[in-house]
Amino acid sequence: MDLVRGSWIAVVVGCLVAALLVAVNGYTGYAITLIAVGLAAAVNLT
What we know:
- By secondary structure, the chain is mostly helical.
- It has helices at 3-24, 28-42.
- It has one domain (3-45).
- It contains 2 helices and no strands.
């Protein structure tokens, strides 16, 4: 795995963890936005 791919994986995982934490606190709109950003970053993994 090269550095670029690893950094994109870190962004995707970070967004998913943040979305989970925000959703647990009741902020569903922010959680949906974080999931969308994570999915957009996941496009760069292919």
